[in-house]
Design brief:
The complex is a heterodimer of chains A (about 280) and B (about 260). Chain A has helices spanning about 15-45, 60-70, 75-105, 110-120, 130-135, 140-165, 170-175, 180-220, 225-235, 240-265, 270-275. With about 280 residues, chain A is mostly helical. Chain B starts with a helix and ends with a helix. Chain B has 11 helices and no strands. Chain B is mainly alpha-helical and about 260 residues long. The radius of gyration of chain B is 23 Å and the shape is flat. The chains are: A mainly alpha (about 280), B mainly alpha (about 260). At the A-B interface, α1, α4, α5, α8 and α9 of A face α1, α4, α5, α8 and α9 of B.
């Protein structure tokens, strides 16, 4: 455990709220302009033939294909399977990670005994398990589930352990003086301290879970958008490949936004959120 | 440290791993399941599977591609990230675009990179790794540069430090904790992509070898491959931590003082 995550800290250093508010509207317009530049640029590169249109079709064609896909039931079925696989794997990883983190983190001897094992298992890339899950489950969703669970679980566990370790000793001792039971300690002392870390864990794990879900679909052939991308590419449907990649990217953006919204809702009382919203 | 204390620490660190390995050994000893061969058998197949030829032919090319792709991502990420972080206009212009590209799960870039660069050689694989590792480093560098202590930047300006000195003495060191956070994320993504990139097209490499074992139902060999991959992940993480502890020693010390340890 070298240092607590730097990802959690910087809310306080993001400049004064007033300066941010005053600049927000032109910022948003510049962002729209940036997106427009990229879209028009890609369209021009393709239309003028600077980049071979067989490799990079005009953006307008990608979006035409995308809207066509929106009318197909198969597309929605794949989207549902991908999102479901992501949500189930992430949910299981969060539940297991938080439970294990609370138990291991609250018992110092258990923390000491498991430290080396956790440090060893965590960096094992989850893709190493691909051959194994293929043998066990083939292209069933269980393959993707196991990969997502393994990858996301360690993210959650490690963050929760940081969070539990961060509990103020005075608060812990006070709870003990008042003879709080273990459940009460978990709820009123550990949980509020660990919550910001749990939210960081949710943000990191949500992104990792999506990567592994799509990977399992693309590489193993578990039904979902990832498999559709592989099929589209191998059948030479270039515009469709791009359209699906755009969809997956938008899902990724939605996941990141969702994680940020959940973080704000759950931590409305926490200084890092309050100072930003003020 | 006395010998007793040292032995105690060793026991705490090694106790559980030994128990777990022993449990695996005993539980799998009489295993007849084709997917879960006895650990004894896996260990026996190890030396015959991972010979010097295989090491040179499969492991070295994989790691070389990872190193080149990762290095590219670090260089491009830090340079671009510093530029974007220092120019608020540029940041506002590029932020939504960057957020979109970061959100694309890197493996889906494989089919697109395959269109441009082909996927039989090393180029496509290196590009996949570099593109996947780029976003965490780039975005964390932007955040790190943006979150610099205003006092520091103001002081640098009052002393009229040249741009170069400002970059090397103020901006980059100040942003380095965030840069390392991004680089650490990127490393685990890089290892994932190193394996995945070898699953496409007929290839040599660590990932390709493991999948070949699986397809030919050479299950103990497949398990040795999983173990090798796991060990590589662990060794790379340890190397990264060593570099980080050395380069961020000042920052970790500062944090310890702040936390009153």
């Amino acid at each position: 455990m070298s240092s607590s995550p730097a990802t959690l800290a910087p809310a306080a250093t993001r400049g004064t709220p007033r300066a941010r508010r005053g600049r927000r509207r032109p910022d948003a317009w510049l962002g729209v302009l940036g997106v427009a530049i990229v879209l028009v640029g890609a369209e021009t590169l393709s239309r003028t033939g600077i980049v071979n249109p067989a490799f990079l079709p005009p953006v307008s064609e990608m979006y035409a294909k995308l809207f066509q896909l929106l009318g197909e039931a198969d597309f929605w079925q794949s989207l549902w399977l991908t999102v479901r696989g992501w949500a189930v794997g992430l949910g299981a990883a969060m539940a297991l990670g938080i439970l294990a983190g609370f138990v291991i983190g609250s018992l110092p001897w258990l923390r000491a005994v498991t430290r080396s094992t956790i440090e060893f298992l965590r960096p094992i890339p989850s893709v190493a398990l691909i051959p194994l899950v293929v043998l066990m489950y083939g292209t069933k969703p269980a393959s993707a589930f196991l990969l997502v669970l393994y990858a996301a679980f360690w993210q959650v566990l490690v963050q929760v352990l940081y969070g539990v370790a961060d509990v103020d000793p005075v608060a812990r001792d006070t709870a003990r003086s008042y003879r709080f039971g273990p459940l009460r300690v978990a709820r009123s002392v550990i949980y509020p301290t660990a919550l910001p870390y749990i939210m960081t864990a949710f943000r990191l794990a949500a992104a990792v879970a999506l990567i592994l879900e799509i990977t399992a679909e693309l590489v193993i052939g578990v039904p979902g958008l990832g498999r559709d991308i592989g099929v589209a590419q191998s059948s030479g449907a270039v515009a469709e490949t791009y359209a699906l990649v755009i969809v997956v990217g938008l899902i990724g953006v939605a996941v990141n936004l969702l994680a940020r919204v959940v973080e704000r809702k759950a931590l409305w009382w926490h200084p890092s959120v309050r100072s930003e919203a003020a | 440290m006395s010998i007793v204390a040292l032995a105690r620490r060793a026991a705490i660190a090694l106790g559980l791993p030994i128990v777990l390995l022993a449990a695996w050994w005993v539980a799998s000893a009489d295993s007849t399941s084709p997917f879960w061969p006895p650990l004894q058998k896996i260990i026996q197949t190890f030396p015959t599977t991972w010979t010097w030829d295989r090491f040179v032919g499969d492991v070295v090319p994989s790691l070389t591609r990872l190193a080149i792709g990762y290095a590219l991502a670090v260089i491009v990420g830090i340079v671009l990230g510093t530029a974007i972080g220092l120019m608020p206009r540029l940041r506002a212009l590029s932020e939504p675009v960057l957020e979109f590209f970061r959100a694309i799960p890197p493996p889906v870039m494989v089919p697109i990179i395959a269109l441009f660069a082909g996927y039989t050689g090393s180029l496509g694989k290196v590009l996949t790794i570099a593109l996947g590792c780029l976003w965490p480093i780039l975005l964390n560098t932007v955040e790190g540069v943006r979150g610099l202590e205003p006092t520091l930047t103001d002081t640098a300006r009052s002393y009229r430090l040249s741009t170069w000195r400002r970059l090397t003495f103020v901006v980059l060191p100040g942003a380095s904790p965030r840069i390392f956070a991004g680089a650490r994320q990127a490393l685990s993504i890089g290892v994932i992509l190193m394996v995945i990139s070898e699953l496409f097209g007929a290839n040599r490499g660590l990932g390709a070898a493991i999948v070949q074992f699986q397809r030919s139902f050479a299950i103990p060999q497949m398990w040795t491959g999983i173990i090798v991959l796991g060990l590589i992940g662990v060794v790379l993480a340890a190397l990264f931590r060593a570099v980080e502890n050395r380069m961020l020693a000042w920052y970790q010390g500062q944090r310890q003082i702040e936390r009153g340890e």
